[in-house]
Amino acid sequence: MWGIIATWRMALEGVTQSADALMQGHRAGDAVVDAVAAVEDFPFYKSVGYGGLPTENGEVELDAAWMDGDTLAFGAVANLVDIANPVRVAHALGRQRYNCVLVGQGAREWALSQGFADKKMLTERALQHYRKRCRETLDKGLSPYDGHDTVGIIGLDKQGSMSVATSTSGLFMKKRGRVGDSPVIGSGFYCDSEVGAATATGVGEDLMKGCASYEIVRRMAQGMAPQQAADSVVQELEDKLMSRFGRAGDLSVVCMNARGEFGAATNIQSFSFVVATENQPLTVFRTERVQGKTVCYPVDDAWMQAYAARIRAPIEE
């Protein structure tokens, strides 16, 4: 049995390549890193990697993580500046016994010392988005925060090993040094090859309040099906946030168990994910929320064409 699942349509090309690799018997740890790196490299995906949207002071600070479900080893970086493929840095940190989570200048210095490429990650297109947002918000005294789509990818290989990787540029117009859930173990990701894995996307400050990814894996360990575990965690976290905190941001998750069964849940109406398994052909799904449950539908050609047009559309100055 093999399988791979990822947040958002933007993961499709990377998942396509890594699904082929898993089908051929390659290891999950490498497959998820390669799939995430493909998303990081594509400049039109403005919430991840090269072309990612900047902080309020115009810098691109990147977060990424990787976890091995066999050993529970993990690595993570946060606030990494001008280093290509932060997920590969996180993967390398996952081989360290200590110092496996590095942030800011320390993360950058370590990456350079290990031979990772120094690359300016702020693109002209992202700068145009930034200038437009400044005009629309900061210049008018409005809140600038919007855009927080993390790519999170889970892989299961034929040897029964699982792995998960994440990458994001974080909240658009965030404060310098802000860290969300994506590089935080248990919140943005968690993986145990004996049980399964989960990864999250949305408002990190709210996802961290429920340790969403760990809680989904814990419920799968107790016997819940992936879809039930995902839906119950998202619904309960949203309810708790509303009752205790007064509001709840976007909460979306995908998960897969050790048998290749998968689930997805969200509290928004525009979540998409990509999945392929030995029993499920490669498919992009969109979701709808119906009475607290997530219903998934394969997207059609019109949806795919609209998506492609939207991400490449010129930015109105």
Automatic annotation (TrEMBL):
Keywords: Hydrolase. Its EC number is 3.5.1.26. GO terms for molecular function: N4-(beta-N-acetylglucosaminyl)-L-asparaginase activity. It is an enzyme of class 3 (hydrolase). InterPro entries: Ntn_hydrolases_N, Peptidase_T2. Pfam families: Asparaginase_2. This is N(4)-(Beta-N-acetylglucosaminyl)-L-asparaginase.
